[in-house]
Design goal:
8 strands; single chain; alpha/beta; 221 residues; globular; TIM Barrel
């Protein structure tokens, strides 16, 4: 079985992007405006700058909390990433509208895994996107949590989504070098997405933690 893909999220500079790529990242996550959470950077200048500096085949993910497809399309025209990561459910327009307006741009739908309803939500979204990403936020709160919580969730629900969705699935939420083997055994995702587990307490990409996480993934069987 090929090794899981690794997405390093919450990248905040070209230097951090280069460090992540040097350690073998397959994708970088660039976080635009969110109601809460970590790693937010401006999409007017910094996200397009990092995306342009990232060498192929490394993917660049625009994390957007927008739920109107017209607004998402306009945002992507500014940012020019290879992938759009929808961290909330669309409220106006459809995935098909995004595909029509942005040919060649991959779509990843985030599912915040809370309960059995999250499994149904994932299976309904799967036919319309290129991949799913399972995270530990809670969009039902008064101030939505749409990622960057540092918490794990119920991995048995995530395993069901992996088995039943028919699409590549990234696992996110509370991952670190010390628990990625357990996450692999429990879920068998296509890829892992990590933010807080490779950052310092003052919110910089930590090369020691990054190297440890990549080594732990390389050791998976």
């Amino acid at each position: 079985m090929p090794r899981p893909r690794i997405k390093i999220c919450c990248i905040q500079s070209v230097a951090e992007a280069r460090l992540a790529v040097a350690h073998g990242a397959d994708a970088l996550g660039l976080v635009s405006a969110m109601p809460s959470g970590a790693g937010i950077i401006p999409d007017e200048r910094l996200i397009p700058e990092i995306a342009a500096a990232t060498p192929p085949p490394v993917a660049t993910f625009l994390l957007t909390s927008l739920t109107d497809t017209n607004a998402i399309i306009a945002q992507h025209h500014r940012c020019r990433t290879s992938t759009i990561q929808l961290v909330d459910a669309l409220t106006r327009g459809t995935h098909a509208d995004l595909r029509a307006a942005l040919p060649g741009i991959r779509l990843v739908q985030v599912i915040h895994v809370l309960d059995d309803a999250s499994v149904a939500e994932a299976l309904a979204a799967a036919p319309h996107v290129d991949a799913l990403l399972l995270d530990s936020g809670n969009p039902k709160l008064a101030v939505k949590q749409l990622g960057g919580t540092g918490r794990t969730h119920n991995w048995s629900l995530s395993r069901r989504i992996v088995q039943e969705s028919g699409k590549p699935v990234f696992l996110a939420g509370g991952l670190r070098a010390e628990n990625v083997a357990a996450a692999w055994d429990a879920v068998r995702p296509w890829g892992f997405d990590i933010c807080s587990g490779v950052r310092t307490p003052d919110d910089h990409l930590d090369e020691t933690r990054l190297a440890a996480f990549m080594a732990a993934v390389a050791a998976l069987r």
